[in-house]
């Protein structure tokens, strides 16, 4: 259809105003031009007849879907299919509308019925692949996406989806190959280059050299991204920015300030282009005498989550409400009993799935003095909102312990006990060192499931080391600590968890650990146990069955350290050069348990062996943890510092 067709049918209707076929044809022509509201008006006139053709009814349903009226669309398309059930394209449209209503299983069923009718329909294959991926059926999803790309090699968004899916399950080389091929087709496509850039970051690296090559490729692509202009419409850019974040960059063990500044600048450019009315800095708004300071907390994790347990809940509970009015903005999903607790603790609680502009408008309307965004980089809506100016002062914290790189984020609220001496150089924000941990952790309250050592493949005489971090926290340059311990303590057994996104990641990690043990003439199968992902209760049960907590080197445990201490485990930790490598060090020092903090690789191995080999020493350490762990949960030393910061920020004295 074309503009000429629109003009032709409009002229025909001027001559014959009641010509229903012309109305239907005009609706189709207008829809082809993207004028969906006009098209819908004409098709509704066409189908007003008592018995319109099924094709018109189907077109009516499609246009209703284009206007976001998905429930009405489903009703009309189903009516059309009742008369013509073999229309594959219409079944595809029905599946898409069902999917938008959250009826994923019904959508998948329609896509599969459409493929029976048209096995090589690229659109249906792409939709089926995306729906299966949402349903965590990764292998059939990838098969459908791959077939769609085979049929339509130039369909760039589907190529990107296929590459992202392969990256997600651990097929990193294949993902990079697809992206590199796509970039040869479209070298200046910003969204593909953004996807490709993030795909350089891997969950597991075979060795430090592979990690360094990954980082170099990421740096190259990031600089190329910075040189590209934004497209006229940035909606797709923002979608990709929200879905493909440099989350894994921080797990490479380096200082990422300069790289994050490039990425954060891109985010702010894109979100400002989409919402320019919220991009201008707000003037200071000093509180009037006697007026409470209005503090906003923006997060996707007002629910059972590490961010809730480590800072959100305590901040809501501890801030003096005679001095501070605290409003919460919940951008996430999965509300639970802790969400209800947050609703009761906050002076105002805004939640729901709403457009970014609506969030921004409502937050600005609250005339905050300070907006706290405790984690940036884990949620799309939170990240976009942090890229706008919604309060005179905006600050982040270590919910994701990495600088945001965003010029819109003024301060980074960190722990004085965790920060290294040169920590100021690690952030684009101004670093604020709050006392203690900068928060008050919430005690673990769940009851551990009973997990026996026998079901873990560990004998009574063995020493079980709890190595419970996400696999990407284990850097290859430190793999040798495990066989070094085992070489001196043959009874050593190391218990690792799995990865949520597929066995290929776990296989890559196990192969790497196997090579580390083989270098010492040892068999990893004798000393290592690998579990799949565990429920919260079984996670706690595994900790309770263990003898020693081995902290990950380079990115320290935090919640996992506290949960290990909850069952009185001694914690061996070697603090590193960044704040995220010093969590356990600060937790132990706050509790007054410092004997298991070491300062070298050799010290780490020596301490782990000593605890494992010396039963009396191990019992003594467990008793010390049992007697002192309460100090972590009772410590409010951070609070005067946080309140002093909020007062100074509100009064423009930062």
* Uncertain runs: none
* Total helical segments: 29
Count of DSSP strands: 12
Q: Order of strands in the sheet with the most strands?
A: 3-2-1-4-5-6-7
Please identify the oligomeric state.
single chain
For the record, give the distance between the C-alpha atoms at the N and C termini, rounded to a whole number: 61 Å
Structural class by sheet pairing and helices: alpha/beta
Q: Summarize the main sheet.
A: 7 strands, parallel
The average pLDDT value, as a whole number, equals: 94
**Percent of residues in helical segments?**
40-55%
What does the overall shape look like?
globular
The radius of gyration over CA amounts to: 28 Å
Fraction in beta strands: 5-15%
How would you describe the overall organization of this protein?
The model has no long low-confidence stretch (mean pLDDT 94). A seven-stranded parallel beta sheet has the order 3-2-1-4-5-6-7, covered by helices on one side. With 654 residues, it is of the alpha/beta class. Strand 1, helix 16 and strand 2 (324-330) form a beta-alpha-beta unit. The chain has 29 helices and twelve strands. Helix 14 (235-243) crosses helix 19 (380-386). The relative contact order is 0.07. The termini are far apart. The chain is globular, with a radius of gyration of 28 Å.
